[in-house]
Design brief:
Blueprint: H1 22-25, E1 30-36, H2 41-49, H3 54-57, E2 66-69, H4 75-83, E3 89-90, E4 100-102, E5 115-117, H5 122-128, E6 131-136, H6 148-151, E7 158-160, H7 172-185, E8 192-199, H8 221-242, E9 248-253, E10 259-262, E11 265-267, H9 273-276, E12 277-285
Parallel strand pairs: 1-8, 1-9, 4-5, 6-7, 6-8
Antiparallel strand pairs: 2-3, 2-12, 9-12, 10-11
Helix pairs in contact: 7-8
């Protein structure tokens, strides 16, 4: 019998680190939430381990993503949950205390270090605490071009979407970052900011992010990885803008993954491991973080 090829080495998963006391963070820090729409955990972990996303990896605790389970299998469902305080759940037995939670009798994941809000969603809860809430949309659920595309951005006091931010634009993230820089520059220095950015670059179509790829060949795990490298090349500007006024607490996570032929599946809004398993990290950005 011929020798079997060796199994690929497992990608290391970062162990969870203690959560900060969010009741102290809220009100004293600016907040940044970035959803890397459709990003797969395995691709994100492999690129971090290989040194291919250095600007993100330098902020990841231990240089690695935390493995989590998405609260939904597609953008709309997952973001409804995230904006209600249900961030992706650590992929280990729980219960796991949450960073944010609506006041709810009997909640087993609301803890002493949880920021508890008395509004229907986190966005309005932060607005009640004096934050200016800003959405910079990416995929179609944020495009404000119809009733459905207006629900999620409608939670925010200020919402932005342009075709240049969308999935069909090869320079979508650069355009989103430029708008974020404008928003931050125009905000009074004493006003707290909750900035949310939904990054569309990972979502299909993403073939144009890999040199030599063609539309006819379509998207693949490799072009998905190339899209993440594209985002990494520009995310330093976003971090610098978000932390330009004061110390900032940042959450960077996928909302769900996507399948590229895994076990015969393609896409998302389905219950496959490639969809449910997502990369997650939270960390502090010091004032004037390097670009």
């Amino acid at each position: 019998m011929s020798a079997q090829p060796p199994e690929p080495a497992p990608v290391p998963a970062r162990a969870a680190v203690p959560d900060p006391d969010m009741s102290e963070v809220v009100g004293s820090h600016d907040l940044l939430l970035v959803t890397l729409d459709t990003l797969r955990y395995d691709v994100a972990a492999e690129l971090a381990a290989a040194g291919r996303i250095p600007h993100l990896a330098r902020h990841l605790p231990g240089g690695a993503w935390e493995k989590r389970h998405a609260p939904g299998s597609f953008t709309y469902a997952s973001h409804q949950a995230i904006f209600a305080g249900f961030l992706p759940t650590p992929a280990t037995p729980g219960p796991h205390p949450r960073l944010f939670a609506a006041r709810f009798a009997g909640s087993e994941t609301t803890a002493a270090r949880t920021f508890v809000f008395d509004t229907p969603d986190l966005v309005s809860g932060l607005a009640k605490e004096g934050y200016h809430t800003v959405c910079i949309g990416g995929v179609g659920f944020f495009n404000r071009q119809g009733p459905l595309g207006s629900v999620l951005p409608g939670l925010f006091q200020e919402a932005h979407w342009e075709p240049e931010f969308g999935v069909a634009s090869p320079t979508s993230f650069e355009a989103q970052v430029a708008r974020a820089e404008q928003v931050v520059a125009g905000l009074p220095p004493d006003r707290r900011l909750f900035l949310f950015v939904n990054v569309s670059a990972l979502h299909q179509p993403n073939w144009f992010h890999r040199p030599g790829a063609t539309r006819d060949a379509g998207d693949s795990r490799a072009t998905h990885a190339a899209a993440l490298e594209y985002v990494d090349a520009h995310i330093g500007r976003l971090f610098a803008a978000a932390s330009s006024r004061r110390r900032t607490f940042a959450i960077v996570s996928s909302d769900h993954g996507t399948a590229y032929g895994d076990d015969g599946y393609t896409g998302h809004r389905l219950g496959h491991e490639s969809v449910w398993t997502v990369p997650y990290a939270h960390f502090f950005l010091e004032p004037g973080a390097a670009r």
